[in-house]
Amino acid sequence: MFAMILTWVGAVLGLALLIAMAAGTFVVDFDDRIQERRRAKAAEPAGPRP
Question: How far, in Å, CA of 45 to CA of 41, rounded?
Answer without folding.
Answer: 9
